[in-house]
Structure formats: C-alpha cells, structure tokens
Amino acid sequence: MKNYLITGLDIGSSAVRLVVGQINPSTGELCLIAGSEVPTMGISKGMVVSIEDVVSSITSSLEQAERIVGQPINHAYVGVSGTHISTMESRGVIAVSRADNEVTESDVARVIEAAQAVATPPNYEILHVIPKFFTVDSQKGIKDPVGMTGIRLEVETKIVQGLSSQIKNLTRAVYRTGIEIDDLVLAILANAEACLTPRQKELGVALVNIGSATTSLAVFEEGDLLATYILPIGSAHITNDIAIGLRVSLELAEEIKLTYGQAMAKDVNKREEINLSEFDLKETGMANASYVAEIIEARMQEIFNLVDKKLMEIERSGLLPAGIVLTGGGAKMLGLIELAKKEFRLPASLGALHGVKTVIEKINDLNYTTAAGLLLWGYQFESQKKHPGGFIKNFNLSSFHDILDKAKNWFKSLIP
Q1: What is the pTM of this model?
Q2: How far is it, in rounded angstroms, from Cα 357 to Cα 377?
Q3: Final residue of a domain: which of 162, 186, 214?
Q4: Minimal CB count within 10 Å: which of 6, 204, 314, 351?
Q5: Residue 210 maps to a domain
Q6: Looking at the structure, do residues 257 and 268 belong to the same domain, yes or no?
Q7: Is 201 a member of any domain?
Q8: What is the 3-state secondary structure (H, E, C) of the chain?
Q9: Are residues 178 and 129 in the same domain?
Q10: Domain harbouring 154, CATH code
C-alpha cells in the first residue's frame, strides 16, 4: 500500500489540514482514506511568521493522520498561498527543431522554458508556468500542438510567482517535520481541481475561496486560467466585527457566528434574541439576531465588492455564464448564496468535491476542498508519470520541481 499513497497538505491561517489518498493498483482509482485538522499557529494572512509554531502545527496534524493510516507519511503536495502571490503574462517563441517541421514534446518543453525567461520582480520565484494556448506559424488558439507541422512555435502563458523568502520559510517548516515536498501548488488552483468541472472552466467561472484571513479568487474561461488574486480579508474579520459590535470575547463571537450566522439580514426576525449564556455561563446578556446578521452582511458585501473589482479589472464582472462558486470555511454561512447572486449579478453555488471517492464524511466539508485539491493535483501528476501523453495538461504540475531539487540540500543542511 505504501507505494500508492498520496498526501495533500493545506497550511491555512486558521488550521492545518492533511488528507491521504490511496491509489487502487488494479483500477487506478483514487480513494481518500484519512484526514486530519489542527489549529494553525505561526501563520498570518497565509504567510509564515513563526517557523517553530508552523512546525508544531504540521507535526500534530501529521501524527493524527499517521495513526489513521497506520504507517509513516513521508511525502506531500503542499499548498502555498498568501498576499505575496502574483501573476503575470509571458510569451515564448522558438523554431521547431525537426527537419520535417513536426512539433514534438521537446519543442513544447523548450517554448515553455523560453516563456519563463522573463524579468521577475526581485526576490520572487516562479511557482507555475501555465500554458494558455499555442501558435504554430500563424495558426492561433491551439491547445496541444504536438504532431502538428510548422516552422515557428509560440506559447502564451500565465506565470504564477511568489516571494522567495516566504516560499523558503514554508518549505523549511515542512522539511523540519520530516516530510519531503513532492510539489508546491498555489492553493486556489488546487481548490479549482476539487470544485470546478471542465464545463464550468470552459463556459467561464470564478472560484472564490473564503478563508480565515484571506479570500482567494481564480477566474477561468475557455478552459484557461485568466487570473488569480489573494485579498487580505476573510471570515476572521467577521468574528472581529461581531466581537466589537456585541462587546464580547473573540471566542464567543466565533461561536455566535457559527451558530446563528446569517448573511441576509432581511431573513432574520428583528425580534429574535440570542441568549449569550448558552455559549458562556459568565455572560448574562442578550444579543439581537438581526443586528448580528447586519454586521455579517456588511462585511460579506465588502468582501464581494473587492472580488467584483478584481473581475472588473479583467472585464469579467457580470459576464461569467457558469457564475460564482464559493468554497472555504467562510462559505458555509446561511444566506451567502443569495447575497452572492445579488452582489455579483451572476449564478452562485457552493463548491462540491468531485473526482475523489471517500467514506469519511468530514472530508466533504468546504474546509477540506484545498487539501483534497492538492490530493487530486498529485494524482494527476502521478498518473501522467505512469502514462505519458498528458504533457500539456500537466506541465504546470512539475514546473516547480527544478527549484525544489536545488533547494532540498540547502534546506537539509540548515536542519540540526
């Protein structure tokens, strides 16, 4: 069984979530067999602020999962996020190498490598190089040029890059737990693997992941990634607002949000009261449920407005037929779908996990979509290694391996 395990590790601002999947050697199917979740320490807005605390959180999650699986976990696909992530467009151009002018996979590799030769900002490293489309001579819009005939091969790519120091901090924290990193993957892209269908990506869709400290956005159209953004605002801001508005502790505000949270204030009876003593015997007051809903709605409107501004920047506001797909722990609030439809003027729905089988009920929770997406990302890469041919689709999966190979020995030399 050991050779067929894949692990996804999602290190969020509020929790570390680790899922383990097993590939059936006879059918090749992926089944999710274990999952663990522990509170995160040492992460703020997706960025490492204390390596020691992050190591402790990952270790706790790892121990829980290993008890379920019954064997050590040594490798993982790790999600990376944070406000330091940025994207840019790039183009690569080469001459086709073969004498008969047939485009080969090596030509595709060379043209994508040429697209990486772009001036990145200081102290930034490339995470993914994602091909959008190829051009063979003057024929544009080609998805897979292998086997075609031409003299000149071009590619339009989307480059995802992150701050070198943050990538190294996260990588070092993971290595110190004894885990080898199979690949670093942008968390919102992994989330898209778990929650979006090829048809949604083809029609045009925006995936909005509402995390604790950040909200991530990925926009797809015609099967291509148009843009990704990470905003420094999340569901924890709602908790802070409730704590200030009701003059209660953050712990109590979080309980109120989870139990009575409603994103549409008009759907709440204005006379309904919340007895604070049911959460904390030391509290004796009452809180108006409609007032709490107004606080939540105001903050969610702000988050959605910020997302819509990003859609305006790429001229897709109100123009995505497959609409908005919401995921993440902050998306579980009552009335949020209705509010999203109103604010975005588009269809809206909650993300649903697909592409992986599981008998563990909690894994179907929206909190686990990123970790499950990392698992699917790894499954695709492993399948591509065993059955070559999906080169274009999976190229971005391996684009970071060169950086990791160079960094591994250096990181290990720093570990006592």
Answers
A1: 0.88
A2: 15
A3: 162
A4: 314
A5: no
A6: yes
A7: no
A8: CHHHEEEEEEECCCEEEEEEEEECCCCCCEEEEEEEEEECCCEECCEECCHHHHHHHHHHHHHHHHHHHCCCCCEEEEEECCCCCEEEEEEEEEECCCCCCECCHHHHHHHHHHHHCCCCCCCEEEEEEEEEEEEECCEEEECCCCCCECCEEEEEEEEEEEEHHHHHHHHHHHHCCCCEEEEEEEHHHHHHHHHCCHHHHHHCEEEEEECCCCEEEEEEECCEEEEEEEECCCHHHHHHHHHHHHCCCHHHHHHHHHHHCECCHHHCCCCCEEEHHHCCCCCCCEEEHHHHHHHHHHHHHHHHHHHHHHHHHCCCCCCCCCCEEEECHHHHCECHHHHHHHHHCCCEEECCCCCCEECCHHHHCHHHHHHHHHHHHHHHHHHHHHCCCCHHHHHHHCCCHHHHHHHHHHHHHHCC
A9: no
A10: 3.30.1490.110
Could you tell me if residue 298 is inside a domain?
yes
Q: Which domain holds residue 391?
A: 2-83+164-196+352-414
Does the pLDDT at position 399 exceed 60? no
pLDDT given for residue 149 in this prediction: 93
Whether 153 and 269 share a structural domain: no
What does the pLDDT look like over 191-239, one tens digit per residue?
999 999 999 999 999 999 999 999 999 999 998 899 999 999 999 999 9
What pLDDT shows up at residue 26?
Answer: 78
Q: Indicate the number of domains in the chain.
A: 3
215 within a domain of the structure (yes/no): no
